[in-house]
Write a structure and sequence with these properties.
This protein is mostly helical. The chain has 3 domains: about 5-110, Orthogonal Bundle (Fumarase C, Chain B, domain 1), CATH 1.10.275.10; about 125-155 and about 170-210 and about 225-360, Fumarase/aspartase (Central domain) (Fumarase C, Chain A, domain 2), CATH 1.20.200; about 365-465, Fumarase/aspartase (C-terminal domain) (Ribonucleotide Reductase Protein R1, domain 1). It is built from 19 helices and 8 strands. The strands form 4 sheets. It has a two-stranded antiparallel sheet. A two-stranded parallel sheet has the order 3-4. Strands 5-8 form a two-stranded antiparallel ribbon. A hairpin with a 7-residue loop joins strand 6 (about 280-285) and strand 7 (about 290). The protein is elongated.
Length: about 475
Amino acid sequence: MAEKGSNKLWGGRFAEETNELAAAFNNSLPFDRRLWREDLDGSRAHARMLAKQGILTEEEARVILEGLDRIEAEIEADTFPWRDEYEDVHMNVEARLTELVGEVGGKLHTARSRNDQVATDLRLWLRRALAAVVEAQQELARVLVAEAERHLEPPLILPGYTHLQRAQPVLLSHWFMAYYEMLSRDTTRVLDALFRLDESPLGAAALAGTSFPIDRHYTAEQLGFLEPMRNSLDAVASRDFVLEALSAITIGQLTLSRLAEELVLYSSFEFGFVTLPDAFATGSSIMPQKKNPDIPELIRAKAGRTIGDLVTLLTVVKGLPLAYNKDLQEDKEPLFDALDTYTSSLRLMGALLPGLTWHPETTKKAAAGGFALATDLADYLARKGMPFRQAHSVVGRIVRKLQEEGRDLDDLSLDELRSFSDLFDEDALTLLSVEGSVASRNVYGGTAPEQVRARIAEAKRELEEDPS
């Protein structure tokens, strides 16, 4: 993507043609051709600026711009003659422009290099791609909130876990909203990446700027950038904007992977909390009774791809000297792959969640089991004045006794409770229900229906706002 090319194209000091294997290894056209629209946009802005500054005549600029429009029409009609010998999208466009408009097409490259050209194209492409990611994130966020609201009346209760051990009852709506909060932060990370990439490298040329009297602020404005980059070396050499985007995407994919993992667990026979829609599962090739959670499993596995994409580019740039190095051609494939992977995962998860069938009797029974209400009894004693550590010990003895007898907390009578502490009274028995336990967590951010309902209302208002 730099000042490169086959020796046939560039001539000059090269006495031999590029080796065939080397040419194929050097060819980036199979993946960078997706930058064609951004390449045309950048070229148009550059041509207009050259005319504005008197570097091109108005007539020359007009001919070039018309030629670029013809190229756009050819690409959209799938009639553009892509040629591997031109090695990348930029040289394909430039060569075709010269074929269409004559030698004046060669003037378009005045005062720019493919170094600043590709950096500009990539920022333009990533800006559009990340805006589409935010849109997909917002769509999934709406699904999560809608599912939370749908299961609030009547409230569906399931066990909350720590260390994958039953801990305390929570509302399914609270569970959905936990993923909404995580996804919201994922969105802000993408928006942060969008903000920091909003600078134009165009005009930095190969690495040192140019001796032509260009107007970089004009081209930045034409392309919708906030401002031109302030250092020409940095403009062509830095890919931290790609790394930041890959980092945000990878964290977002990890959020989806965690959600997918819980769906895999909860849909298993051992849990039985939820049934996946048939459209997002498959059968076994040999075992007719099985329903495999293939889509959640693949979303979970795709996190490995995005992590690999991030590590790939981190490794590429970690030791690069200034300014441009051909290593930076390796920035696009991991970026494209990660964005494609994450965007499709977001859309699949958004389509899957509304089709889930939850089993409230199973989830409620699980939420009440495993002594999940023990903390409620300890809190009761603490509210009566007993130091919490002592209350913890008292309830621990109750649990051990019940375990030995093969009983659970809801089997306890008031007399049995009072045998462990005189502080227990009749109202302690009301705590031994999952409904009472959930309702008692009526603090900001807690799982009580009142708190979850309020957070859902806030989230709906948030989703009506422009995330940018």
